[in-house]
Structures
1.
Amino acid sequence: QDNGFEQFIINYCNEKLQQIFILMTLKEEQEEYVREGIQWTPVEFFDNSIICNLIENSKCGILAMLDEECLRPGTVNEDTFLTKLNQLFATHKHYESKETQNARRVMDTSLPPQCFRIHHYAGKVTYNVTGFIEKNNDLLFRDLSQAMWAAQHTLLRSLFPEGDPQKASLKLPPTAGFQFKASVATLMKNLYSKNPNYIRCIKPNDTKTAMLFTPELVLAQIRYLGLMENVRVRRAGYAFRQLYGPFLERYKMLSARTWPRWVGSDREGAEVLLADLAIPPEELAFGHTKIFIRSPRTV
């Protein structure tokens, strides 16, 4: 019910994971059909990069503004931080606070004064700014890190590399938000280099009761997870795709014309092989470099 800095950081990570899910399953899949010259009607979907940018933009994102407030000399409090956000995002459609609501003449008693609200992909979340600055400042003092390093213990040294006197820096230690943003960027880079599979968990009811499904709750989750668009792309698209070479190598024994050796191009070989198998033409699409097969049962 009460969301602070920790929940804000967690939701930022969720937003980034949703972004990679959208890019890999909706955007890239559709782009592949276009690239391969397959006839395709684009499926519209909500791209949440606008929300990610609101949080992580290095010049004027929420995390950057928080860092700026933490480094500012003089009396620093959350009020100045919230005022800065209100000025920056006065017209942003995924951000609102009491002040921006007043400017838009919106009367909403559910949004208290010390708070801002973000319209995340999964719904609206209200954050209380109290404690944001204190929690964002990494207050592990330099001499404590150096003491840990001096303990001559391998694990401790790996946990406190900044304690190495040879790497001693006079710069301020990085903030918690900065460290988390860097950590999320590393995770994203790692995920982009893989071929991930997804398991989507749907919460069936709010009471943790067996065999009870609340249709409104399930539907809301299916909508905000982008699963509707995913099903549309999958239904309109092709369950299986493979480069002509490996496809022919794997299935060439199914036709007397391609087995044991095929002398033409890989694509021609795949066309001959599939013609001999009498597969309905609507099940197949021949791309520039790959064969596309519509339904799993055909494979």
2.
Amino acid sequence: VHQNKMDFFCKLGYGKQDICKVLENLGQEALEDDVLKELIRMGSKPQALESQTQPSQLKLVARGSCSTTLGLKCLGEDGSDSSDSLRPIVIDGSNVAMSHGNKEVFSCWGIQLAVDWFRERGHTYIKVFVPLWRKEPPRQDSPIADQHILGELEKQSVLVYTPSRKVKGKRVVCYDDRYIVKVAYEKDGVIVSNDHYRDLQNENPEWKWFIEQRLLMYSFVSNRFMPPDDPLGRHGPTLSNFLSKKPVLPERKWQPCPYGKKCTYGNKCKFYHPERQHQAQLSVADELRAKTKVPLALGKEEERWSLYA
């Protein structure tokens, strides 16, 4: 079973060391979905992304154990965010600006709000991608608000224009989404956008995994930039861990077993048993077998000696 799971996750591109660590923590009977979730939580990445991951050495406790120290900080993590521990940020400028302008106006103020939010958290690498033709004077069919902000962000080396030109009176625009995903992938950063980039996901399987795991969606509430506290869902990492290179795992809270001392699952029980702290975690059936084998063996020995007497 161990070898089959090793082969399965090796084919997905995960490293053997990470797979062995997860199987050791969760047990050999862990489901493949649980193993995959734990690999993602540890920051392990398939194929080419694996070489860019910083391995985290975690101390986890086996299922059924009663230890209270169930989650530790990664090595070198002091609990405070610094520029070295925060991921690079790549912002889809067009998506953010149109979202702030209610999909009617290209609102540059929305880009400024997003940039300020990440700056306040301590991020130093922030790049915003906007098509070059947005520098042109606004037209009736493409209104732009607070266009001077683009020039200010460009002077700060935050905003980057993607190429565009006119050929025989027609505008030729390069695909800015490709710039956004490529730079974020190479920097191992986070993409800020409400776009799912489905076309780019179909182009490259590594980009598909990256977009699924590193896309940060957002909302604007009364001129306030608000990303979700759980970017990957209820069971995923917190926003702070999502934006950090070295996530801090919270202490896991174990639920007491509803059956208490009457539980017959033994070491297979996934709940907390305080009475088994210093006991061998055997099922009731195994304990009975172990007790009955001893007197049977003693009885056979006595019969043998009685024959020689």
